[in-house]
Specification:
Blueprint (H helix, E strand, L loop, with lengths): L2 E6 L2 E4 L4 H9 L14 H15 L8 E4 L5 E5 L2 E6 L4 E6 L5 H14 L8 E5 L4 E5 L4 E2 L10 H17 L5 E4 H8 L4 H7 L4 H22 L3 E7 L8 E4 L2 E4 L6 E4 L2 H12 L7 H19 L4 H4 L3 H17 L5 H20 L6
Antiparallel strand pairs: 1-2, 1-3, 2-4, 4-5, 5-6, 6-8, 7-8, 9-12, 10-11, 11-14, 12-13
Amino acid sequence: MSFRYQQWGKYLVCLDQPLYAVVTRLLLNNSDTAMESIGIKRPSRKRLSRLVLKGKLGLADPDHRVTLPVFGHIGMNVHGGIKIFDFDRMEVAKVFAQDISRRAAGMEIEASKLSSRIAAAPRFLGADPEQRWYREEYIHGEDATTVDSENPGRIAKFYTDAEKCLIELVGISETDDIDIRSHIDRKMNVSFQARWRESGLNQALIDGITAYLGQLERWLKNRVGQDRLPLVMTHGDFSLVNAIWTDGGLRFIDWEGISPGALYSDILNFLYVEYYYGRAPANFRNCISTFMERYRGKIVARFPELRQAADLDPTIARRLYYLERMNWLLGRSATGNLSSVVEKSIEMFNEVDREFGETLE
């Protein structure tokens, strides 16, 4: 069976939902519907309701309609496909775009299964590889970035929940290791240059990013020697941007990028994204040092075999994170907005280095 969805702004509205759902979920401001978690506010609900009624009368615009194999009240376009939200069952399904390969879809499904072993992640509910979708629990709560938004030190409030999640994440797979230089080579993303040129983005910017990556690579390779880097499982984009504040504390979403990485990459991303958006404490240097030391102590106590990874020089750990973050950004589709994010990230990395009194050269 398939279901009809009508595009409306950034949402896709299911035209095949029962009329009672239209009234109670879209038209009325019923907080039990859990729609607030994906940003649907009262002003849009009446218009969305009208759109569904138009669809049932055959008046909705067929040129902006898609057919999907999963039922849900509301859909949203996301990287690699569409997410479909069923607010009755409190489930969310990911339907993969046609240009996503079977292998990539399978890897994401396996990532969802793996992350569901963590208490702070959504539970995996099932998949249909043939129809290219999987389902997981829908996390209902408030966007964590808006909670206590007037308190610039709130990252400390959330740190304990984030730390618990990451320690659990570290423990879900056996520790592996890699030569640090090989890890650096794997993360040196130079393939972005051709894609960025084809997108018409500024050549001077491309040259600047390439120069920064070269500096970072040289600095790291001059200092890591022949050491090996123990790898642990990482979220890939661990931050309050991907967190929901619930009655039970923080829960984290968007685990598609779960993969082996350096021990400190997730915790540093958690701190740096807050710095990027101007929400971190004023003394960011002390913030990083304090949280890294606390995290290090708990990791060593829980996983003695990770002492070598935990004892990695903090400056090297930070700059390995810079490289991993740049690799993740440059691996995305080139856009003007992305280029500004990359530029600001490089500025941010340099600012923090200066605050610590350290430079690449």
